[in-house]
Amino acid sequence: xxxxxxxxxxxxxxxxxxxxxxxxxxxxxxxxxxxxxxxxxxxxxxxxxxxxxxxxxxxxxxxxxxxxxxxxxxxxxxxxxxxxxxxxxxxxxxxxxxxxxxxxxxxxxxxxxxxxxxxxxxxxxxxxxxxxxxxxxxxxxxxxxxxxxxxxxxxxxxxxxxxxxxxxxxxxxxxxxxxxxxxxxxxxxxxxxxxxxxxxxxxxxxxxxxxxxxxxxxxxxxxxxxxxxxxxxxxxxxxxxxxxxxxxxxxxxxxxxxxxxxxxxxxxxxxxxxxxxxxxxxxxxxxxxxxxxxxxxxxxxxxxxxxxxxxxxxxxxxxxxxxxxxxxxxxxxxxxxxxxxxxxxxxxxxxxxxxxxxxxxxxxxxxxxxxxxxxxxxxxxxxxxxxxxxxxxxxxxxxxxxxxxxxxxxxxxxxxxxxxxxxxxxxxxxxxxxxxxxxxxxxxxxxxxxxxxxxxxxxxxxxxxxxxxxxxxxxxxxxxxxxxxxxxxxxxxxxxxxxxxxxxxxxxxxxxxxxxxxxxxxxxxxxxxxxxxxxxxxxxxxxxxxxxxxxxxxxxxxxxxxxxxxxxxxxxxxxxxxxxxxxxxxxxxxxxxxxxxxxxxxxx
Length: 604
Fold this sequence. Notes:
Elements: H1 7-19, H2 35-38, E1 44-50, H3 68-75, E2 77-80, E3 83-84, H4 89-98, H5 116-119, H6 135-141, E4 145-151, E5 169-173, E6 195-197, E7 200-201, H7 210-225, E8 232-237, H8 249-252, H9 263-277, H10 300-333, E9 340-346, H11 361-369, H12 390-396, H13 409-412, E10 416-420, E11 428-430, E12 434-435, H14 439-447, E13 455-456, E14 459-460, H15 470-473, E15 486-491, E16 494-499, E17 502-506, E18 517-520, H16 536-552, H17 564-575, H18 580-603
Parallel strand pairs: 1-8, 1-9, 2-11, 3-12, 4-5, 4-8
Antiparallel strand pairs: 2-10, 5-6, 6-7, 9-10, 13-14, 15-16, 16-17, 17-18
Helix pairs in contact: 7-10, 9-12, 11-18, 17-18
């Protein structure tokens, strides 16, 4: 692809031509400084990543959840409504930080779910390979300060921690998740919650709450070197809203009663708001997910408990937004805001593996074995293990289908907001297809840094496949992918290929049927109208393109009988085989969502 000028240079040229002899300002809120002043040097860049946040979980995308900080960013930049990522965390993070397909980057799946037959291959270890270069490494080499505070999940050995992958200062969770109130693992796979600071084991403070702590550390890192006038890159991958779902009481209280009408009412209301905002086309059809239960069939006590689970979830989202606002306020006070670009997105769609009834005996026993409770009164607070059910997960991804782990739009389509005072567009929605590998090339364009050309640091480096979004952000183009450009994707046998406005997709059991389907996802993001039979020629062309993708990216076939939940059970049993009681509890708990999904399929 033709190399474009860095976006800050494009903006500088356009503003210089348009504003000679005049001073103009267009900002989020009233504060000193001008856009032209802010772009005379490479900008600061803040990359914010939510965890398991669904497509419609924030207000700019149709949510009832109060997210004023993200709403302000959306009003000050471009919101992408057709942006896609991987359907689980580690592959998404690998692509986000390198611009390289997850398979070639060494992270085709999270390591916790890789089969032993796959792990024999060097690119199927679930840790970030040394054949890829992170955006932090490239920015650090260009003179940026580079900071990270949050979840890493791309390797836990010393040479694979973020402190060895381009980040100058770090506090990082190496695991797939952990408690938000204290240093405690959230699943039996881990002996402890593995936190590291600048490459060394780290003990969390007593007053820890994840969202507050991660922003505190980000501010601390920036503040320690803010006077030297070098630009910074800050990566803030939140734990919100990954399991366990937890939030301070003050953030939960406003949502008590908000979900008493149930998941269908919320799903429909979000669809209407998203349509009114222009986030989705009018009259999008939603398909019913087989994991979504009947709200009216629940007793009053179960409805009350379910509504509070979702209230805790909403509180966790708002708490994250609140602390994002604290970071924005700090940058304004330090006169750094005008020269900062913000990128906000999620690693994948909503998590739907929470049990339908956490108070069932086996679920209570599992929570207690880890030192948690599932009591209604303290739900979401310290010591509580909370999740949302698969039914409310369908609300989190409204109006989309499927969830995390699957290749449906609900698992892959998430919010993406890019905002900053130096960007010429305000409050713009863009519905062109974009992909997670586009983020690193775009960041490099902001900074005026070239991607590696086959080699970096004396060794071969995989080429970036993502596209620089600068033409869209500067208003010079509506899209960066042409009608014939194909982008492939695979995770544990769930797969997709995007081309123009179309997508082919296959989802495995228990929720899928292993059949390829064809959708126009620009007109039909709910994936309700399968075009495979009416447009077989397109289906075959796209299937051929997917086969090329598999070959080019060394995608392995799945072992016979593989299931991602089953493999997690097997891997955990192997890890924890010395504790028979735990094994029994773990097996029953982790298999429960699988069995529920199976039973629901039998009913259809």
